[in-house]
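This entry is passed on directly below:
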Amino acid sequence: MQISPPFGYKEVVPFLKTQKVRLLAPGEVPDFVQHGNAIPISLSEFQPVAHDYPIVFTATEGTQSFAPVAVLGLTSGENLFYKGDNWASGVYIPAYARRYPFCMARVNLNQVEQKDRLICVEKKYIDDQGEQMFDEKGQPNAKWKDLERLLGEYEADLERSREMCSILADYGLFEPFTMQASLRDDASKPMQMGGMFRVVEKNLENLNAAQLKNLMRKGIMPRIYMHLLSLANFGRLLDRKAARKPN
């Protein structure tokens, strides 16, 4: 059996009821999020994410497979929402980080990918000093019930996200774009971010009635405008970066 770990995870193994797991403290996030400038998000997260972060789309290299992400920083390895040991107060933490060290992973048996995903855990977080998720009778505690619900809801929501991105790509609504910015009174070379895609609003005019109805029926149209409005948050990222710059 081969298990493919999701982005950011290193070595995941199937989660067993008998295992004790070290859970993240409130506001704590895994290392790859602390030092990453983007994090995957799902369809139902667009509204809370759009309040603080730019939402853009990325594409798997060499494919037309797109996914939405929240932008956390303006340069590689930069998270402007994490400082010290905690996430910025009052700012939504995407579910991708909150579910850690658990995940739903793809499993291959005899080189055949299985339809159902398996609940897994980052191996290094299995710890005898950690927390027991099930009692001696195999009954889940309240923490595990919350985590299991988060994992299940997030996985289902990811499928809706994939469907949305597939439709947007099929309708020809994506375009690549680059963000370039400089800090005030900074004479150094401007920061530049590429590899991002956005929805072209004017291309909506080219869609037929059935396509527009489909975008509305599947709840995609509101997400398009949340995404477009969220792009103004690049300015807020610049403000955050400026606030961290030594005087």
